[in-house]
């Protein structure tokens, strides 16, 4: 049971479950989730497609009913205090459809009229750098400008708590950065923020604390630094080996020499963990200057030629891989491999404004 005392929480969730009927049988989207979001923090739900992030945020926003569990938003419950909660939160959905024949200013004024109090819409436009578009029809705005308009619409009620569901999916790098700045400003002004994302760099840059979600459960929780520190080393050394003899991959498999496994590198100086990665290996290390010379010595003794070697800082992606053995996502404008986003796989929420 949730403690009935005065809530110090922006959000309190206990034992949240959501089961959808599904075509081929029940789908457990959220499976016993606990969350504590404190006032003034930017809290991230990070996880792969289908992890249950959107389902969770929809329940917090009062758009969907839980199958089981308890939810408090700003110390209130949706069942009894829906009007009050709506007056105190701002919601930016994954996608928003706007009425085409309204200007930016008209739409902001309309949304402002839904709230008892809040700023003059003209003072909100500069917060999202849309003042020059005040009299433009919303249909003429670019994708990034429309996302920022959606944020402005969430701000006109002067919310204490804001929800952003995958705020930058599909945006180009410049538009992403502009939206990051808007979210950072809101945080600096003391607003509580909950955002979902499958971009680890976004979570790392924006969030004070992150819950990594997989299969409807929180599998890790902490500040980005705490989560990264769990790996036991701050650097990743990735390398691939040439095969000895004919054929083979970067692990030595398929050539004449016996294949190497990640264990072969586990006892090198400051190596905290080792895994197969793509066509080679990835070592989590504390001190690359100690680990790399020892690695080169070992490969020399084993007679294995090095094809390539790179080092980088540990990311939340590595935390996810260490926890699940899978990658968080294979794309992202600034992700690990720079491939184009997979885009609209699965369901996307669309909201019609006005
Ligand atoms: N209305 C629905 N009916 C049936 N299953 C659903 C429904 N909505 C979501 N699901 C399923 O519930 C699971 C969680 O989906 P959800 O959209 O919450 O995940 P997510 O982490 O937000 O993923 P994404 O990043 O793709 O938005 C998935 O298996 C999804 O297919």
UniProtKB/TrEMBL annotation:
Pfam families given for it? ABC_tran
Q: Name all ABC transporter domain ranges.
A: 11-240
Name the domain of life. Bacteria
Q: Does the keyword Ribonucleoprotein apply?
A: no
Gene Ontology MF terms in the entry: ATP binding; ATP hydrolysis activity
Q: Where is it chiefly localized?
A: membrane
- Record keywords: ATP-binding, Cell membrane, Membrane, Nodulation, Nucleotide-binding, Translocase, Transport
One GO CC term, this protein: plasma membrane
Protein name in the entry: ABC transporter ATP-binding protein
């Amino acid at each position: 049971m949730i403690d009935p005392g005065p809530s110090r929480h922006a959000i309190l969730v206990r034992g949240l479950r959501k089961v959808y009927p599904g075509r081929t049988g029940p789908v457990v989207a959220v499976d016993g989730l606990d969350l504590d979001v404190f006032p003034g923090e930017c809290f991230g739900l990070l996880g792969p497609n289908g992890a249950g992030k959107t389902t969770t945020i929809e329940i917090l926003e009062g758009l969907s009913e839980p199958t089981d569990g308890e939810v408090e938003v700003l110390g209130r419950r949706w069942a009894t205090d829906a009007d009050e909660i709506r007056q105190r939160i701002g919601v930016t959905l994954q996608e928003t459809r706007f009425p085409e024949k309204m200007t930016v200013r008209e739409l902001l004024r309309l949304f402002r009229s839904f709230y008892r109090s809040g700023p003059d819409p003209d003072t909100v436009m500069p917060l999202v750098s849309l003042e020059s578009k005040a009299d433009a029809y919303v249909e003429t705005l670019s994708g990034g400008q429309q996302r920022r308009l959606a944020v402005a619409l969430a701000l006109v009620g002067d919310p204490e708590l804001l929800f952003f569901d995958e705020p930058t999916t599909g945006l180009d790098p410049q538009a992403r950065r502009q939206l990051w700045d808007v979210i950072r400003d809101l945080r600096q002004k003391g607003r509580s923020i909950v955002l979902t994302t499958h971009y680890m760099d976004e979570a790392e840059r924006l969030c004070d604390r992150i819950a990594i979600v997989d299969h409807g459960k929180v599998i890790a929780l902490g500040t980005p630094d705490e989560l990264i520190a769990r790996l036991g080393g701050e650097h990743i050394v990735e390398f691939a080996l040439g095969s000895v003899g004919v054929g083979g991959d970067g692990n030595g498999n398929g050539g004449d020499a016996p294949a190497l496994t990640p264990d072969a590198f586990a006892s090198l100086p400051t190596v905290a963990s080792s895994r197969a990665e793509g066509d080679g290996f990835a070592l989590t290390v504390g001190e690359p200057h100690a680990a790399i010379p020892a690695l080169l010595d070992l490969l020399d003794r084993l007679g294995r030629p090095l094809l390539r070697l790179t080092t980088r800082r540990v990311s939340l992606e590595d935390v996810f891989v260490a926890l699940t053995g899978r990658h968080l996502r294979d794309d992202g404008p600034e992700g690990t491999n720079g491939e184009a986003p997979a885009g609209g796989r699965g369901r996307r929420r669309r909201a019609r404004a006005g």
